[in-house]
Every structure is written in structure tokens, then in C-alpha cells.
Design brief:
By secondary structure, the chain is of the alpha/beta class. Helix content is about 25%, strand content about 25%. The chain has twelve helices and 17 strands. α9 links the parallel β13 and β14. α5 runs parallel beside α6. The chain is globular, with a radius of gyration of 20 Å. It starts with a strand and ends with a strand. About 50% of the residues are buried.
Length: about 375
């Protein structure tokens, strides 16, 4: 079928809205009419060639939300007309998948960054030219997307899909890191380094968990002000003060939990140094393979933990409906992070995101 999509024809190039051909769904696939799609830093990493993905032409996008248009013969999870969020895909068969840790799937790159289905078949073409799609098994920078039954999550029909789109990745990652990975409890303290979508979602989740000291660390005063409005009890401008000293002073020795949401070795070191004994630092920020960091081994030996967290350790089919319900109750107002753009203005949305003028741009198809 013919669809409109934002195609990148060269690494680091501009998004161009083009008419392309999308394959029909196979027996285990779902065709989704995309209503909205968030733009994530992982999309920009793919755009600039920072991920091990095939060369352009490519179609990215992995925070898609829409309405099921058609399903394959074996699909039972959703039906045409259902509202869905699209997330990441996984193989179901490797050891991590079998214990429910699908983000740590041993075949994650094959199922999400291969530029095609896992069997190598291409789903997108422009004339005779093959286009690499199936990004996170969706490529949602388009009017229609092809996903697998595994990576669609049904959501209530009375919540705007354009609001829910970011839940598929950034929002779920930040919130899940606090709720599932760190398992923060009432009275705990947490310092979040980086007040973007992931960090802000972590702050919202910390409030839901009952953390009484919630510290936002960033260098953007406007982001820090928004963090306070969303539940941060303290803010630290790392461009003006030493964040480690500030956090130790605020908490009386260090925060029980810290989150590195930036992807910067210097920031990770600060997050670890801000822990007390038995504290835990979660690493969320994405970095190029081979990035190294220097840590104080004595600090680690004294009961501190550093652990990587993918996707908030969440099971999307369970966690997304929970977050939606928290949002409906007014306890998780992540919509405060969103600014909407027409699909045709994807270039402007990317520029605003890179300049820090918007936390979470969402494209309306």
C-alpha cells in the first residue's frame, strides 16, 4: 500500500516526506494507522550514524501510536479499530526473553535495528529502491506502520493517542527505571541527572513512589523549573555548582538512588559519587559502543552499585496500561513534557529538540 513517510536518504541528512510502498501484514503482523509519533534521541542517534544500523535510505520513528487497520491471520492480541502504542520488538526465545526481560533480548539488534524483518525481508520501497525500515519493528515516522503482534500494546480508546505516543519508549524508560529497576520506596531520596523526557518521567515516577527527596540535575534553568513543577523537591544547576557536593548537602551524605539519563562519562561519575553506602546508580543514557568511564573502586567496594537499565526493566503489556491509568487519575502528568508538530514539520521539531527548546516533540500525522 502507498503511504507517506519521512525518509532520510543520507546519514545526517534531512527528513523528506515521500510517498513509499509498505508491504501487507504477514500472519503475525499488525498494520497500524499512525496518529502520532514521538521523536526520541535514539532516532537522532540513528540519523547521525551513531547506531550500528544499515546505511540510508531509512525511515525511523519508534514511539508510534495509532489505530489498528488490519491484522494477520494468526493475530489474537488486537483487532481492527483498537487503539495501540508500538514499542520495541524481541525474539521471545532467548534466556532473557523467557524470564520476561525482553529489553535484554540477545537478538535485540536483529529485531529492532536490522532495517528489515528478522529474516531480512524489506517492508518499504520507493519504486525499485529498497528503504530500510522496521526500526524498532515499526518505523513510525509515517502515516502507516507495520509491527508484530509482540510489540503493540492495546490502550483505552478514551485517552488521546497523540498524548500517549511517548509512552512507547522515553516515558516508560524513565518511569520504569524508578518503579521497576530501582524499586524506590516511600521516604527514599533520588537524584536524576538530565531533565529530558526520560529524566522528567523518572521524577514523576519518584513522586508516585513516595520519594521525599527528589533532586533534578541539569544545566538548563527552564528544564529545572519544569522539574520543580512536576515534583522535584530540589534542583541543582550543574553549570553553576558542583552537583556531587550539592546532593550530599541536600541529603546529608548522598541520595539512595541516582539516575544517569545523559549518556556522558563525566555525569555518570558524578552520579556514582553522589551515592551513600548501599546506594544504587542506574545508567540509562545511551552512549556509543566502547565508551569508558573511570570510577573510584573504593567507593564501589563500600556497598555501592552501578547497573545498566534498558527500557525501565518494564514489560510493556503490563506497565503501559498502569501508566495510562496513573495519567487518567492525574498522578502522572507526563503530557506537560509534550509539544506537538505537524508531520510535515519534522525538521523543525528535530531542530527544536536539539536546541533544547522542547522536551518531547510529538508529530501529529
Amino acid at each position: 500500500m502507498k503511504i507517506k513517510a519521512a525518509v532520510v536518504f543520507e546519514t545526517g541528512g534531512e527528513f523528506k516526506i515521500e510517498e513509499v510502498e509498505l508491504s501487507e501484514p504477514r500472519d503475525d503482523e499488525v498494520l497500524v494507522r499512525v496518529v502520532a509519533s514521538g521523536i526520541c534521541h535514539t532516532d537522532l542517534g540513528a540519523l547521525y550514524g551513531h547506531l550500528p544500523i544499515p546505511a540510508p535510505p531509512s525511515i525511523f520513528g519508534h514511539e508510534g501510536a495509532g489505530i489498528v487497520e488490519k491484522v494477520g491471520a494468526r493475530v489474537t492480541k488486537v483487532k481492527p479499530g483498537d487503539h495501540v502504542i508500538m514499542t520495541w520488538d524481541y525474539c521471545e526465545h532467548c534466556p532473557p526473553c523467557k524470564i520476561g526481560k525482553v529489553l535484554y533480548c540477545l537478538n535485540f539488534f536483529l529485531y529492532n535495528f536490522h532495517g528489515a524483518r528478522p529474516d531480512g525481508s524489506i517492508t518499504l520501497h520507493k519504486g525499485d529502491q529498497a528503504i530500510h525500515g522496521s526500526f524498532f519493528n515499526q518505523s513510525s515516522f509515517a502515516t502507516f506502520a507495520l509491527a508484530n503482534e509482540r510489540n503493540v500494546v492495546k490502550v483505552p480508546g478514551d485517552v488521546p493517542l497523540e498524548v500517549l505516543a511517548p509512552m512507547g519508549c522515553g516515558v516508560m524508560t524513565g518511569a520504569g527505571a524508578v518503579i521497576h529497576a530501582l524499586q524506590a520506596r516511600p521516604g527514599d531520596s533520588i537524584a536524576v541527572f538530565g531533565a529530558g523526557t526520560v529524566g522528567m518521567s523518572a521524577i514523576l515516577a519518584a513522586r508516585v513512589c513516595g520519594c521525599t527527596t527528589i533532586i533534578a540535575v541539569d544545566i538548563n534553568p527552564e528544564r529545572l523549573e519544569l522539574a520543580r513543577e512536576l515534583g522535584a523537591t530540589h534542583t541543582v544547576n550543574a553549570a553553576e555548582v558542583n552537583p556531587v557536593e550539592a546532593i550530599r548537602e541536600i541529603t546529608g551524605g548522598g541520595a539512595n538512588f541516582t539516575l544517569e539519563c545523559v549518556g556522558n562519562p563525566k555525569v555518570l561519575r558524578q552520579a556514582v559519587d553522589s551515592l551513600p553506602r548501599l546506594g544504587v546508580c542506574g545508567l540509562i543514557g545511551v552512549v556509543p559502543p566502547g565508551t569508558e568511564v573511570a570510577l573510584d573502586m573504593d567507593l564501589l567496594m563500600n556497598g555501592r552499585t552501578v547497573r545498566g537499565i534498558l527500557g525501565g526493566d518494564a514489560i510493556p503489556d503490563l506497565f503501559i496500561p498502569q501508566l495510562v491509568e496513573l495519567y487518567r487519575q492525574g498522578r502522572f502528568p507526563f503530557d506537560r513534557l509534550i509539544q506537538f508538530y505537524p508531520f510535515e514539520e519534522i525538521g523543525r521539531a528535530v531542530k527544536d529538540m536539539e536546541a533544547g527548546r522542547v522536551v518531547k516533540p510529538v508529530l501529529r500525522m
